[in-house]
Amino acid sequence: MSEAQSVTDEVTTRTAADLTAFQQNILGILSEEPMYGLAIKRELESYYGSEVNHGRLYPNLDDLVEDGLVEKSELDKRTNQYELTEAGHDAVLGQLEWVLDRFVTDEARADEVRALLNE
């Protein structure tokens, strides 16, 4: 196999740094439990306070599936369920770590984060 083939045949999993905020929010929602598309849509609409278009949601879900961050399975002939993969879990954890490393600059901020975790 040539060097060019080995480079193009490699599958690269995107990390949270490679994702849009919208995609990161989808992963955050799926961190809680597997969901079907309309349930994800409702969660996003609740967060954004506005309607989320199907034409925005499903292509992003498909990209996350293609990237190996989300697994898609059939619940029935009309409904798909989406679940975070281990790589998706790692992407969420990596993003949280990155944000917390920047946010927690002193003990007062650390206490704010602890308070959030204890709610």
From TrEMBL:
InterPro entries for this protein: Tscrpt_reg_PadR_N, WH-like_DNA-bd_sf, WH_DNA-bd_sf
Alphabetical list of SUPFAM superfamilies matching this protein: Winged helix' DNA-binding domain
Superkingdom classification of source: Archaea
Pfam families: PadR
Residues covered by the Transcription regulator PadR N-terminal domain: 26-91
UniProt xrefs under Gene3D superfamilies: Winged helix-like DNA-binding domain superfamily/Winged helix DNA-binding domain (1.10.10.10)
Protein name stated in the entry: Transcriptional regulator, PadR-like family protein
Organism: Halorubrum saccharovorum DSM 1137
